Amino acid sequence: MIKRLYAYLEEYKRNIFYCVLLVSGEVLCELMLPLIMSRIVDKGIPSENLGYMALLGGLMAAVAVLAMVLGVLNAKYSAEASQGFAASLRSALYHKIQTFSFANIDAFSGASLVTRMTSDITQLQNSLMMGLRILIRAPIMLVSAYIIAASINFRLSLVIVGAVFLLVIGTVSIIRMAGALFTAMQKRLDALNGTVQENLIAIRVVKAFVREGYERLKFQRVNDALVQASMKVGTITSFMMPMMMLIMGGTTVGVIWFGGGYVSAGAMGTGELMSFISYIMQILMSVMMFAMISVMITRARACGERALEVLDTVPTILDGEASAPRRVTGGKVEFRNVSFRYQGDEQDVLSGISFTVQPGEVVGIIGGTGSGKTSLVSLIPRFYDVTEGEVLVDGVDVRAYRQKDLRDGIGMVMQKNNLFSGTIKENILWGKEDAAMEEITRAARAAQAHSFVESFPGGYETELGQGGVNVSGGQKQRLCIARAMMKNAPVMILDDSTSAVDTATEAKIRQSFREDYRDTTIFIVAQRITSVQDADKIIVLDGGEISGLGTHDELMKTNTIYQEICLSQSEGGVA
């Protein structure tokens, strides 16, 4: 894992090199301070040589300032490297997610992907920054300080070896117990983010149904689950500091006890004992820092595995190796004995679907809720792949197209209308980036959106909130239709796209399609008979199978389901 993540640090190798040099210099400065102090205590004070003491005191101050400067520079370069690493990894994750199919996104969930790109990456970033400052510093300080301490009094230095051994054993035990719990904690964070995201997206529904209390309880449950997971980790890691302090305190007492005997016997000077104690503290602090960063790295490892899980995921929709650039030009669509089921499901959503649509035909798709209408049209732009059979556009299997080429030839208004932060003009330009203003207004007029857009003070420059919160449902649908019309694609799919539009406006939109897009193959998924009754052919779905196929008049004579739908929606009919 470390080798793979290191690839995102490639352009910051120089920063890492600088950090090693700077930390080495900083450690060297800190190691010099106790030696200089021991000279002052053992030589300057007994001889009462003020000049000698002032000289060494000034040297200590200069070394301390140099250490501070080196530490600040190290912090700068380590911050640059960690921030750059996080940006590169976050960018790689985002680009990977853009290649995911709907099935891949369903498998991860949107909230989990957000957590991995934010919280997980931030944890990796912080661990790297601390690692460049501590993981380099701790071993250099540990080895160097021990060599100096051993040169002062080798037998007394053996006390440090025992203390370090105990610290390592205790730290490894704690890290092993905490490792799996960090992964569980990140999953709880996924669930928390999912709950918050769902609540904020549907906040109007929550308030309309006065479900704030229920949402609070739901949030409380996932929040408590995260707290419990965090508490488990916290309980285990809380033993770290007391263990360290106990070992450090015991080691210091032991050194003073045995070192005092050496001083009394004349085997050590008082200054040497003071510097020896300083080196002990530096050694034990190095081990402590190493232990604390090890806990951070343990959590970072869990986060890194989650990031790599995204990077390692193979999109379920891929361009075939034999794919060649080709464009959708005619608009002929054919289903050949198509069956489809969602990933992980055992039952087909669609079964035995076969029909042909000629270029320029208008096809209505109608049926009860859950009959497979949206699933059927989602197979045309290859949002999902068929389980069995073939879907062909212009006589070519959709799996033989490059995804970009296929989807460039299909305009789509989805069941859930999504607008983006920005102006109305910018949203419509999604259909054609280089469109002139005249083309924008033409598409808006065809979608019956121009009049209400002009009523806004800013007109087409009116800023839309996230998701288009400052326009009504019907207005949002018409803007999405205008966006699709801008593509002027050979195939157009309207998935229940006029459900929030009144019948008179819907009729005008249908008229625009007939007059301005007569060469376009149009699929209209609808609940209302009036939306499809003028279509060239109507497909009636029932339980994922085609129950009827024909014109409105033909189905009224032959198809019971269509008759029932018509009856339920007609004036005086039985709902």
What can you tell me about this protein's structure?
With 575 residues, the protein is an alpha/beta fold. It has 2 domains: 2-312, Up-down Bundle (ABC transporter transmembrane region fold); 325-402 and 529-575, Rossmann fold (3-Layer(aba) Sandwich), CATH 3.40.50.300. The chain has 21 helices and 12 strands. The strands form 3 sheets. The chain has a 6-stranded mixed β-sheet. The chain is elongated and about 115 Å long. The mean pLDDT is 85.
How would you briefly describe this protein structure?
By secondary structure, this protein is α/β, with parallel strands linked by helices.
Strand portion: 5-15%
**What's the overall geometry?**
elongated
Helix content: 55-70%
Number of helical regions: 21
Question: Which properties best describe this structure?
Answer:
575 residues; alpha/beta; ABC transporter transmembrane region fold; Rossmann fold; 2 domains; 12 strands; elongated
How is the secondary structure organized here?
Blueprint: H1 2-6, H2 13-47, H3 50-98, H4 102-108, H5 110-135, H6 137-152, H7 154-201, H8 203-208, H9 212-237, H10 240-264, H11 270-312, E1 333-340, E2 350-357, E3 362-367, H12 373-378, E4 388-393, E5 396-397, H13 403-408, E6 410-413, E7 422-423, H14 424-428, H15 437-446, H16 450-455, E8 463-464, H17 473-487, E9 491-495, H18 503-516, E10 521-525, H19 529-532, E11 537-542, E12 545-550, H20 552-558, H21 560-569
